[in-house]
Amino acid sequence: NAGVMQNPRHLVRRRGQEARLRCSPMKGHSHVYWYRQLPEEGLKFMVYLQKENIIDESGMPKERFSAEFPKEGPSILRIQQVVRGDSAAYFCASSSDVVDEQYFGPGTRLTVT
Amino acid sequence: SQQGEEDPQALSIQEGENATMNCSYKTSINNLQWYRQNSGRGLVHLILIRSNEREKHSGRLRVTLDTSKKSSSLLITASRAADTASYFCATAPATALIFGKGTTLSVSS
User: Where are the beta strands (DSSP E) in chain B?
Assistant: First the structure.
């Protein structure tokens, strides 16, 4: 049973470009969460999705960031017009139920130059 | 605002010793989870303790939860060099996990 998959593992973008981060949850998991980790910091919640629905996006910046979890395919975190401050590690997690353990992927490390 | 706060921020011990990390939180929770993160890597789920549980064991790990004090502790017994990592507690007041800044554990051989 494969764990949570994220790709790419490393992503370098110039300021103003778009970044697309992908997350495939564990088999059987329908709950997906995105977190961001800045250097030397803990993880900060961004958004919680179920298939085709955004349930909680209270941690997501209002501009330039969007997330989706389509009926088919991985969840996507999209950052438009990236800025240097977006450089961070972005982790995706999945769970089988909202009150169960969240299992994390290896993360995507975004560097904005 | 920070929900979970780990204490101490850093801990250095010798192999074979026990390591205890504490976590305090502010609001009521459904459960509390402990994770380990090796430098530059993803998070590994260690243990989940629900709000109606007081203690839980998993191998060399022992977690306690005191909801009246809004605190939890993680005990790693007979530590090994491979236990060197950052340890985070994460609380689940609702859907999202709220992480503290972590305790950095160094185990020297």
Answer: 5-7, 10-14, 19-24, 31-37, 43-50, 55-58, 61-66, 71-76, 85-92, 98-99, 103-108
